[in-house]
From TrEMBL:
Each ANK repeat, start to end: 20-52, 54-76, 114-146
Organism for this UniProt entry: Arabidopsis suecica
InterPro entries, sorted: Ankyrin_rpt
Name of this chain's protein: Ankyrin repeat-containing domain
PROSITE patterns: ANK_REP_REGION, ANK_REPEAT
Pfam family, one: Ank
Presence of keyword Iron: no
Membrane-spanning residues: none
Keyword set, alphabetical order: ANK repeat, Repeat
Amino acid sequence: MSIVSLLVESGVDINLRNYRGHTALMQACRHGHWEVVLFLILFGANIHRSDYLNGSTALHLAALNGHPRCIRILLSEYIPSVPNCWSLLKNKKYSVAGFEPSVLHDVINRAADGGITPLHVAALNGHIETVQLLLDLGASVTQGNGDTDTDTLDAETRRMGGAIC
């Protein structure tokens, strides 16, 4: 962490990319370094950048390796800080000024190349806690990956014995 803060303090552009198109934020999410993820976001890291290889974002990389804490941090800007906010919002018992569920929906369901969403990636890699978190945050189970023969999420759910639903 001290290296990251030293680089930021020296003026390094935290949104620079490596040869794969990964930013420091993407690498931190990939490896589950949630403290670095939080630090980079506080200093303006762009969570919407996608890599050069397959269009994956930091959210895809956190889901790929099963890092729910990184996912929570990445999406914290889009989630109201209200206890039980989802049940309140779903039951229309509460409204939050400036909160747009459609924006969260777009971010959480953004597909990489081939239509693969963070939910698909987490399910395909058996990260049950991550799948549950994404579902709780409103990830779409119906957003397809373009594969007309199989529904990837449904197939993975059956393989895991229905454990994620």
